Amino acid sequence: MPLMNELHLDRLSLEDRLLLVEEIWDSIVQTGQVVPLNQSQLQELQRRQMEHERQPEDVSAWDEIKAAALTRVSR
Fold first, then answer.
1. pTM over 0.85
2. Are residues 14 and 25 in the same domain?
3. What is the 3-state secondary structure (H, E, C) of 47-58?
Protein backbone atom coordinates (compact mmCIF):
# COMPACT_ATOMS: atom_id res chain seq x y z
CA MET A 1 0.00 0.00 0.00
CA PRO A 2 1.44 3.41 -0.92
CA LEU A 3 2.55 5.50 2.04
CA MET A 4 0.12 8.28 1.04
CA ASN A 5 -2.80 5.89 1.57
CA GLU A 6 -1.31 4.17 4.59
CA LEU A 7 -0.92 7.50 6.40
CA HIS A 8 -4.29 8.70 5.02
CA LEU A 9 -2.58 11.72 3.46
CA ASP A 10 -4.74 11.22 0.39
CA ARG A 11 -7.64 12.47 2.49
CA LEU A 12 -6.06 15.90 2.96
CA SER A 13 -7.17 18.82 0.84
CA LEU A 14 -4.86 19.98 -1.93
CA GLU A 15 -3.88 23.05 0.06
CA ASP A 16 -3.06 20.95 3.14
CA ARG A 17 -0.98 18.54 1.06
CA LEU A 18 0.96 21.46 -0.41
CA LEU A 19 1.56 22.82 3.09
CA LEU A 20 2.75 19.38 4.16
CA VAL A 21 5.17 19.24 1.22
CA GLU A 22 6.56 22.63 2.28
CA GLU A 23 6.98 21.43 5.87
CA ILE A 24 8.68 18.22 4.75
CA TRP A 25 11.04 20.14 2.46
CA ASP A 26 11.86 22.61 5.26
CA SER A 27 12.63 19.70 7.59
CA ILE A 28 15.00 18.22 5.00
CA VAL A 29 16.78 21.56 4.60
CA GLN A 30 17.14 21.90 8.38
CA THR A 31 19.13 18.66 8.54
CA GLY A 32 21.95 20.40 6.69
CA GLN A 33 22.37 17.46 4.35
CA VAL A 34 23.00 18.14 0.69
CA VAL A 35 20.32 16.90 -1.67
CA PRO A 36 22.12 15.03 -4.47
CA LEU A 37 21.49 16.31 -7.99
CA ASN A 38 21.85 14.35 -11.19
CA GLN A 39 23.66 15.89 -14.16
CA SER A 40 20.56 17.31 -15.86
CA GLN A 41 19.34 18.87 -12.60
CA LEU A 42 22.76 20.45 -12.03
CA GLN A 43 22.80 21.84 -15.57
CA GLU A 44 19.29 23.30 -15.15
CA LEU A 45 20.28 24.87 -11.84
CA GLN A 46 23.34 26.44 -13.46
CA ARG A 47 21.24 27.70 -16.39
CA ARG A 48 18.74 29.32 -14.01
CA GLN A 49 21.53 30.89 -11.97
CA MET A 50 23.08 32.41 -15.09
CA GLU A 51 19.66 33.70 -16.19
CA HIS A 52 19.11 35.30 -12.79
CA GLU A 53 22.53 36.96 -12.93
CA ARG A 54 21.63 38.40 -16.36
CA GLN A 55 18.22 39.68 -15.18
CA PRO A 56 18.18 39.90 -11.37
CA GLU A 57 15.08 42.12 -11.37
CA ASP A 58 13.00 39.47 -13.17
CA VAL A 59 11.77 37.60 -10.08
CA SER A 60 8.46 36.63 -8.50
CA ALA A 61 7.62 36.34 -4.83
CA TRP A 62 6.85 32.82 -3.57
CA ASP A 63 3.44 33.94 -2.31
CA GLU A 64 2.51 35.08 -5.84
CA ILE A 65 3.71 31.84 -7.42
CA LYS A 66 1.90 29.72 -4.85
CA ALA A 67 -1.36 31.66 -5.22
CA ALA A 68 -1.21 31.35 -9.01
CA ALA A 69 -0.56 27.60 -8.77
CA LEU A 70 -3.43 27.08 -6.36
CA THR A 71 -5.72 29.09 -8.62
CA ARG A 72 -4.79 26.96 -11.65
CA VAL A 73 -5.34 23.72 -9.74
CA SER A 74 -8.70 24.76 -8.32
CA ARG A 75 -10.22 25.48 -11.77
1. no
2. yes
3. HHHHHHHHCCCC
